[in-house]
């Protein structure tokens, strides 16, 4: 019964009970993908921040373990990252053991500083370093360290924020304990007044031998859909600072929906060809995260995504993020409904006669971007035709916009900022738009044109609002596959 509640995500990670926010310490080690996260062990609202812990062998099926790093006195354990210290640079390893080292913000009411802890048993138990904090600037706001190993100079690199200054600071270290300040990055074109949870990651560029560095930043406010969201810059890293190559004012957003925050990427992934980075985000918005109507848990992670870059000539060369759900999700895809044609009424009839009104599924649509709007209504309340609940995903050819409208998606009144229609700019490719839409009990993640844009949104429909209905004249093909639950 643990994972059976009406709004319980069936193939996204959530905890059995209580509050979660940011994913922390994403790292692969010895057959296990670790997912740590901001967790309140006592309540389903934010507080007592502790690193909760889950592991997976495939990035899809998760097992929740006991909390990993607990608050101590008035010091809460805020967001951060985790590395596998193979060469035992930290000296925490004993008798040939490889330490896992967590680097996080120790948050006191009037000060935030960077701390470390280590584990010698694959992340099950942790010891806080006696010499904490390892970086202390005596600042009230100084948080969210992301650490990675930098091959060219054989040292650790940290990117960490002065959130209210919207400034990223870079540090380096040979032992994870002593840190030397490198450069800084700030951007005058950001609409956000606060940055959180940075990540700096090298990403392959499709169709080339190139790799570029992407600086991911969570925006505390003024994101395109309102409230919190994420932006990124593309450029170089010289070992001590990030050099932005994105044009100033040419803002790039990671996601155009309302619920995509604090995403960071995995450290120490097994090398597999030219695979991109893998990220997980928190599917929520700071405007209402404490108010969403779920119980006994509050907070969900997004699907893991593979991040790549595309080199776009438009008319100048520019690098744009491309995001796709990871391949590992494929085994969850089950029975399918397939259709090609032009007659939407006929499509809706054959869908109805197939009785395909699932709870969790993945839709793959090919649309012709003609003059009329086109799209699909999901989680439709059949009892009240034209009036009941529905979440609308569509394409507006006149405006060249992809949209998700959740203004009638179910429960929306718990916070006025929740309701709305959210758009992303998207141009047809050879006259076509392709959409991949992942529907779970309480979310809809849309990937447009193979991950050119994404829109991630929570929804809270009634359990029996299960209809699927297509509209407009541009539909050309439809594939619907059920998605198996990941929980037993
Ligand atoms: C982002 C954030 C981080 C902080 C953590 C505290 O959601 O505010 O900046 O480390 O959450 O829970």
TrEMBL record:
CDD domains according to UniProt: GH32_Inu-like
Glycosyl hydrolase family 32 C-terminal domain: residues covered: 329-474
Keyword vocabulary terms for this entry: Glycosidase, Hydrolase, Signal
Membrane spanning stretches: none
Matching SMART domains: Glyco_32 (SM00640)
InterPro entries for this protein: ConA-like_dom_sf (IPR013320), Glyco_hydro_32 (IPR001362), Glyco_hydro_32_C (IPR013189), Glyco_hydro_32_N (IPR013148), Glyco_hydro_beta-prop_sf (IPR023296)
One Gene Ontology term from the biological process aspect of the record: sucrose catabolic process
Domain Glycosyl hydrolase family 32 N-terminal: 12-314
GO cellular component labels: cytoplasm
GO MF term list: sucrose alpha-glucosidase activity
Record's keyword annotation contains Iron: no
Recorded family membership: Belongs to the glycosyl hydrolase 32 family.
Protein name in the entry: Glycoside hydrolase family 32 protein
Species whose genome carries this gene: Spirosoma agri
Top-level taxonomy: Bacteria, Pseudomonadati, Bacteroidota, Cytophagia, Cytophagales
């Amino acid at each position: 019964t643990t994972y059976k509640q009406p709004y319980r995500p069936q193939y996204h990670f959530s905890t059995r009970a209580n509050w979660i926010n940011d994913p922390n310490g994403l790292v692969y080690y010895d057959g296990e993908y670790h997912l740590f996260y901001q967790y309140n062990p006592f309540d389903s609202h934010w507080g007592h921040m502790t690193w909760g812990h889950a592991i997976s062998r495939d990035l899809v099926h998760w097992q929740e373990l006991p909390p990993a790093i607990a608050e101590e006195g008035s010091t809460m354990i805020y967001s951060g990252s985790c590395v596998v210290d193979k060469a035992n640079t930290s000296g925490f390893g004993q008798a040939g053991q490889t330490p896992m080292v967590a680097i996080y913000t120790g948050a006191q009411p009037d000060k935030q500083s960077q701390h470390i802890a280590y584990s010698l048993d694959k992340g099950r138990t942790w010891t806080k370093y006696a010499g904490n904090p390892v970086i202390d600037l005596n600042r009230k706001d100084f948080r969210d360290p992301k650490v990675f190993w930098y091959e060219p100079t054989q040292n650790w690199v940290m990117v960490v924020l002065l959130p209210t200054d919207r400034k990223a600071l870079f540090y380096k270290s040979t032992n994870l304990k002593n840190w030397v300040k490198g450069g800084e990055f700030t951007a005058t074109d950001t609409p956000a007044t606060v940055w959180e949870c940075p990540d700096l990651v090298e990403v392959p560029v499709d169709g080339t031998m190139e790799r570029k560095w992407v600086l991911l930043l969570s925006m505390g406010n003024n994101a395109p859909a309102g409230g919190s969201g994420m932006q990124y810059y593309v450029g170089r890293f010289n070992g001590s600072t990030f050099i932005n190559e994105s044009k100033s004012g040419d803002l790039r957003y990671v996601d155009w929906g309302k619920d995509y925050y604090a995403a960071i990427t995995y450290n120490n992934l097994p090398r597999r060809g030219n695979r991109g980075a893998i990220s997980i985000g928190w599917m929520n918005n700071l405007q209402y995260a404490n108010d969403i109507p779920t119980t006994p848990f509050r907070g969900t992670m997004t699907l893991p995504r593979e991040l790549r870059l595309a080199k776009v000539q438009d008319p100048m060369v520019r690098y744009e993020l491309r995001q796709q759900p990871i391949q590992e999700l494929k085994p969850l895809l089950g029975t399918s409904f397939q259709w090609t044609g032009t007659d939407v009424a006929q499509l809706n009839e054959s869908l109805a006669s197939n009785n395909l009104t699932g709870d969790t599924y993945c839709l793959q649509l090919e649309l012709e971007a003609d003059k009329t709007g086109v799209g699909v209504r999901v989680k439709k309340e059949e009892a009240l035709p034209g009036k009941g609940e529905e979440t609308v995903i569509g394409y507006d050819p006149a405006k060249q916009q992809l949209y998700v409208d959740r203004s009638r998606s179910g429960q929306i009144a718990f916070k006025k900022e929740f309701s709305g229609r959210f758009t992303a700019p998207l141009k047809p490719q050879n006259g076509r738009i392709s959409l991949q839409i992942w529907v779970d009990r309480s979310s809809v993640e849309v990937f447009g044109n193979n991950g050119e844009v994404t829109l991630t949104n929570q929804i809270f429909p009634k359990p029996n609002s299960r209809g699927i209905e297509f509209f407009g004249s541009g539909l050309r093909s439809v594939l619907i596959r059920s998605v198996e639950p990941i929980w037993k």
